[in-house]
Design brief:
Length: 137
């Protein structure tokens, strides 16, 4: 992680499979120049089981998956609820049927699994933010 005022690129690798964890929690501060912040849950084969892409430049939050370098159908429903220079919290609960996503404590969406959630091995966070907290439980 880099200092405040710079973009963050963080790959969080855990020896225990991420898929065995029940939840992911992170807190961050979008930079004033923020265009995008991405939270990716990846499999061992580098497929993206879930990407949450906060797109300040489009005023939307996009969810998607990528398999064998091919992006799937995007989900864009929901209100854009982040602001530059304002702290935010994201929680992702890995339920048997879907990822349940909460932003700032409020339910945002359910994202149906497009791959076996037990195959998750990595969490990657990148974009225009200061990452303050990241936890897998």
């Amino acid at each position: 992680m880099e200092r405040k005022g710079r973009s963050c690129n963080l790959e969080f690798v855990r020896r225990q499979q991420v898929g065995k964890s029940q939840s992911l929690r992170l807190s961050g501060l979008p930079l004033q120049k923020a265009k995008r912040i991405n939270v990716n849950l990846l499999t061992e084969r580098e497929n993206v089981a879930l990407q949450i892409s906060f797109r300040f430049d489009e005023n939307c939050i996009v969810r998607n998956s990528q398999f064998d370098q091919a992006w799937q159908n995007e989900e864009r429903e929901g209100k854009f609820c982040l602001a530059k220079d304002t702290l935010f919290d994201v929680e992702v609960d890995n339920k048997p049927y879907a990822f349940q996503v909460r932003i700032n404590g409020d339910h945002f969406c359910a994202y149906a699994h497009r791959t076996d959630p037990k195959e998750l091995t990595k969490v990657c966070v990148d974009g225009d933010l200061e990452l303050l907290f990241l936890e897998l439980k």
